[in-house]
Amino acid sequence: MALFDYAPAPESRAAAGDIASTYGHFIDGEFVESTGSEALKTVDPSTEEVLAEFAQGTEADVDRAVAAARKAFTSWSALPGAERGKYLFRIARIIQERSRELAVLESIDNGKPIKETRDVDLPLVAAHFFYYAGWADKLEFAGYGANPRPVGVAAQVIPWNFPLLMLAWKIAPALATGNTVVLKPAETTPLTALRFAEICRQAGLPKGVVNIITGDGRTGAALTAHPEIDKVAFTGSTEVGRAIARTLAGTTKRLSLELGGKAANIVFDDAPVDQAVEGIVDGIFFNQGHVCCAGSRLLVQESIHDDVMDALKRRMSTLRVGDPLDKNTDVGAINSAAQLARIQELTAAGEAEGAERWSPSCELPSAGYWFAPTVFSNVSATHRIAREEIFGPVLSVLTFRTPEEAVAKANNTPYGLSAGIWTEKGSRILWMASKLRAGVVWSNTFNKFDPTSPFGGYKESGYGREGGRHGLEAYLDV
Amino acid sequence: MSEPTSALRLDVYKTYKLFVGGKFPRSESGRVYEVTDRKTGEWLANAPQGTRKDTRDAVSAARKAFGGWSGATAYNRGQILYRAAEMLQGRREQYLAEVAVSEGLTAKKAAPLVDAAIDRLVWYAGWTDKVAQVAGSANPVAGPYFNLSTPEPTGVVGVVAPQGGNGFSLLGLVSVLAPVIATGNTAVVALAPNAPLPGLSLGEVLATSDLPGGVVNLISGHTEDIAPTLASHADVNALDLSGVVAEEGPASAKDLEVAAADTLKRVLRPEPASHDWTTAPGTDRLLTFLETKTVWHPMGM
Predict the structure, then answer these.
(1) Which residues of A are catalytic?
(2) What is the domain range of residue A367?
(3) Do the domain assignments include residue B226?
(4) Is residue B137 part of a domain?
(5) Pick from B240, B287, B297: nearest CA to B266
(6) How far from each other are the two terminal CA atoms of chain A, in whole angstroms?
(7) Would the CB atoms of A450 and B142 count as touching at under 8 Å?
(8) Residue B52: its H or E element
(9) How close is the nearest chain A Cα to the Cα of B27, in Å?
């Protein structure tokens, strides 16, 4: 029985502004054509409609972009910090002014609900530029020495799950500290990065300080292996992170990595169940579960397992899956056919290995890439769905009896990005928080982000932090 | 009182052994190699030739010790490091002699290097309960949340100690080891193969300082056996390659870093062989093998 029926409340597609039919790269302050002829297509994953073609960056394109960044580095790094900061403040303001446009464009290109791009992604993008803008003329007070110097040219490769937010996390601290950048957006979500290039022009940013080069993993490999770069910052899969670490072995180049996760979200028997269920839902269904820090393993204390599962299923039944541009939508489209196939493969493995699968009855659009919110119970620690990152709206539920067992199970993973704790007992929160080997611990909340708050992983979830004072270190020669 | 018996009495030699899990085992291989006086070439001792298996045993010991050591209070860790400085001071003459023969130095030239090693332990002993205040932060997030970032130790750190020959077989070792354990990590150290004796003897100082067994493990032998084992071991979280000198091959920085990438170990790259370990260390090493943990909690009534 549906409690409410919602009339559609679509955001205007036209608000995304003009999408060109083809895009080149943004190098040395200009939009330029690729030296190669290969073009890729980006589609709206909710309809499979082709939005635009864009260039597959070649080695020659990468050379050109790195040379532009190198040339710009001399004057950009010599600019007084206060002036660098003012460019970043300008960018932050223009992002605020154009946030509706960027939110709609992001939703179209990525498939995520407009509710999230509008209320989460874009506010955080602007806030990130504001935060690091303010650091630009205060670096000597950051605890990295009296005269901290930039690293040089940063090669930055970002994923498709938060395209513009990951761009902000990379570009804002790099520029504030005096570096220049060559950034490659993901091949399924290049549009907001290319729109950001326009914003750099509106802000009057000197040529070559920000260069955007598009393409798939081949372009990323060429960029991260380029001899003239000084630093690589990568967010994405652990496998690619390893490959980049191997590429940089034996060099003097710096590396920061933000990789996969398989976070435990731990619910104790004294937790307020309704609040915990909201946190569980937010933890795994936010952004279709395309979140490296998603709470993908629910650890429930055995005594309340049935109550939590009942409440969770009730809540999941009210999730609205569909048109990303509908303001009522909770869960949007899966970003790509390849990602959908991966989710389907892992969930099939979950069933084959004996876990119990459940989804609310939920009508999915016929075109596009969709996956209904799914929960697996009776999951054992050895199941693939308990060990591997699914990166989709799929929750695996395990149980525990004691806090010690919860800690052991939570830490039983090569990853260590995030964790959640739900309990009313303060001393237990602090004890758990100290035992969990994870870079971010959310207690009685989940999936909260802020530019002042350092984010990053332990173990195979990567190294280095983004956000806060700590986020400066990756871009300073310390 | 009898006459002095120097003409008749033999000195008691020391059997140099590994330091693993708080104990002093021989190498499981039963093998040793000759260590000679750097200046005269005279035989000094048979040092254990630690193997891959010895290294793996040491990693197990270091992992086992990590929970207790990382969970100890910072004050307690500081007390123990200071105690190690006291023990080293008490055995100053022994280390002076070992550093002198290992490095080919006169006792006069070796003395300030031993004294500096003692002082370095004191420096890091004082850091244990201050580093969190320097490396942590309270984060003013835009919402009703308490948000705090604190540093935690990375885990088990594999250390390639600085080589002998420049005077630093003790000071270099202490300079790389102390910051690793001061912050709560545990360590497995590949000692300088060309000057292992001061390092092997350091185990005696640590064993009498209330340092829990396994927090520091000292292995002498071929670096090509020990360092690649540490680099590829899935239960090692980080590598300090300070003492790496090989330009190529399995014990080169490049190959070790490639092996470390499989489990995404944090890697501190080599120091130049000419590095002067007497210079003030600053906080760089102290802050290297730390993870920042950020904890959120809502504020409300």
Answers:
(1) 258, 292
(2) 264-443
(3) yes
(4) yes
(5) B240
(6) 60
(7) yes
(8) helix B52-71
(9) 30
A175 and A30 in a single domain? The answer is yes
| Pair A147, A110 in one domain | yes
Judge: A444–B297 Cβ closer than 8 Å, yes or no.
yes
Q: What is the CATH number of the domain that holds B161?
A: 3.40.605.10
Residue A424's domain is classified under what CATH number?
3.40.309.10
Q: Across the interface, do B294 and A455 touch by the CB < 8 Å criterion?
A: yes
**A83, A376, B149 from A340: Cα distances, Å:** 45, 17, 36
Let me know if residue B142 belongs to a domain: yes
* CB-side neighbour CA atoms (13 Å) of A133: 17
Confidence band for A478, pLDDT divided at 50, 70 and 90: confident
Closest CA to A394 of A357, A445, A339: A357
Q: Which residues span the domain enclosing B158? A: 44-298
3-state helix, strand, coil in chain B (%, to 5): 40, 20, 40
Residue B119 falls inside a structural domain: yes
Q: Determine the average pLDDT of the residues in A258-272.
A: 97
Chain A: residue nearest B68 by CA? A435
Query: Chain B contacts of A465, Cβ < 8 Å?
Result: 292
**Judgement on whether residues A283 and A188 belong to the same structural domain of the protein:** no
Chain B CB contacts of A440 below 8 Å: 293-296
Residue A436 scores a pLDDT above 50: yes
Report yes or no: A57 at the B interface, CB cutoff 8 Å: no
Q: Which residue of A has its CA nearest to B265?
A: A459
The residues of chain B scoring below 50 in pLDDT are: 1
- Percent with pLDDT over 90 in chain A: 98
Are A440 and B294 an interchain contact pair (Cβ–Cβ within 8 Å)?
yes
Residue range A342-395, pLDDT digits in tens: 999 999 999 999 999 999 998 999 999 999 999 999 999 999 999 999 999 999
Tell me: do A112 and A219 sit in the same domain. Answer: yes
Quickly list H helices, A55-97. Answer: 59-78, 81-97
Regarding whether A358 and A234 lie in a shared domain, the answer is no
Instruction: Among B134, B145, B284, select the one facing A448 at the smallest CB separation.
Output: B145
Q: Looking at residue A311, what is its pLDDT?
A: 98
Pair A296, A235 in one domain = no
Q: Which CATH number do you get for residue A93?
A: 3.40.605.10
**From A243, A442, A463, residue closest to B266, measured CB to CB:** A463
Assembly ipTM = 0.96
**Does B70 contact chain A (CB < 8 Å)?**
no
Closest residue of chain B to A478, computed from CA coordinates: B284
In a domain, A336, yes or no: yes
Q: Count of domains in chain B?
A: 1
Q: How far is CA B217 from CA A247, B55, B94, B290, in A?
A: 31, 9, 21, 20
By the CB < 8 Å criterion, does B262 face chain A? yes
- Give the full edge-to-edge strand order of the sheet including A49-55: A22-23, A49-55, A39-44
How many Å is the Cα radius of gyration of chain B? 20
C-alpha distances in angstroms, B6 versus B2, B10, B98? Answer: 12, 8, 22
- Report if residue A7 sits inside a domain: no
CB contact under 8 A, A245 and B260: yes
| Domain identity same for A342 and A283 | yes
